[in-house]
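Homework-ish question, so no full write-ups if that breaks the rules, but can someone show me the predicted structure for this set?
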Amino acid sequence: MQIDPNKCVACGNCIPVCPMGAIYIDPRINRATINYDECVECSTCFRGMSQEHLNPVMVRTVRKLAKFFRFRFEPEPDVCPTASFVMEELEWPRIARRVFSDPLVEHKSTGIHGRGTEEVKTNDVNARVGVGEAGYVIEFGRPGVGVRFREIQEMTRSLARLNITFEAKNPITHLMTDRASGDLKPDIVNEKILSAIVEIKTPLHRVPEVLEAVTQTAKRLDTVIAIGVSTRCDESGEETVLSRLLEEHGYTYYRAKTNLGLGRVTNIQKKQEAARDEHLASVR
Amino acid sequence: MTNTLHRYGNSPSFRDDYILFALPCKGKNDDGAIDKLKTFLRICARHRPANMGNGNFGSYQPSRALNPTAHWNRDFSQDYEAVIGGIEKVGTVAAVFDSKDKAEAALREVIQADLGFSVNMSTSVEGAKDCCQSNGIHRHSVEYSLGFYDPHDHLPNSQVLELSTMCGHGMVSFNLAKKMLDMVREGRRSPEAAAFTLARFCPCGVYNPSRALRLLEQSRTVQR
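A: Not a homework solution, just the prediction itself:
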């Protein structure tokens, strides 16, 4: 992301808007400036702010007058008066910042926007997390702190030592050079992003062990971690095994994402394949 | 849509926060899904959601060419039709309801429409369970939020967290949430104007301006 210094009037509206706090007024040029190393290319400034297209010279003059008379200037707080933000074309590895930070950019590895994960949202169709299994969604950098890939790598290495399975359809898994060690591509490890999710799966009885490993590793990381744990409900829609396990080990939870079980395979070709597989299984 | 899972707050604080979202699965039920996603959102729109989004933009949007008079007369209206008509490719669509009654009623119609793709509800554990029971369906899977683990004290106070985590993609910054809290407390912005300002930064349309309004009104007299 860039700010056009010929347009910027240093109104400062964009400063609190940046989730990473990467925008500041540079006193040498009296223009809003982006700390390029801290910017995660999330596009919040460019997309989230409304834009006026006022003449910069006119706005600067009005602002100088208001400042001279000590008038409090109280415009709408989410407006860039001169549409100063300019989106850049990014190249690898910096483009990884945008892919992981801008929720409107699709992850090519999974075809999903945002953090690029399906988790148990389609579990009624995909059966990703089965009976007796726990799915984990370990999210880094959120909210509002950000994370560098090297810190994510520290966690993936810790998890790999537990001999767990990384979810194949996950953008971080796609960046691994070796799933057995949890190593990520070396050229991205210093890139900073807004957030990313590591997904793993284990049998339910390993939940306390995995959560302990995650929280112990998190102490060494200079970021924030959000953890989600999922499982299948029983036929009557109840879930007591995972919830009891969490409570026994001192984890509290108030909020959940609930798959309501309304999904099914409707694509005709897929339906035929499923019927054929079922038939073959019965013949065998 | 983990962006709706980790909202900060306890169970009672989610009493006005029920998110219903639909997601077709690639290769399984995505044929003809765009029309079905539009049907899903049309059903939701009939139950007056607090916000609605199609994955690309929500019902409160920033303007690319704002008229300067907007500083005195900002438009806070929702544009459901733009959200529904704006679905161009298969992805997640969502609607946010500010009462359980509305969420239950919308879910009832969604079940009757039998759209075939996965539908999820993000709210308190009990809230989702109640909605399922009242509509005679069984939960398939559940993902619990264990909240944030912050060993190095990066996170701000709970009022800022409650407001900013309603956009789980992190587009509503801590500093902007804090600025809105300060402006409301100082009488420089109405809670409504502050809530809609925050909602415009969430491109997925899952920010809940009704809950934000309640939190901002509370913040006038209570600072945590």
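Now go work out the reasoning yourself. Hint: The mean pLDDT of chain A is 92.
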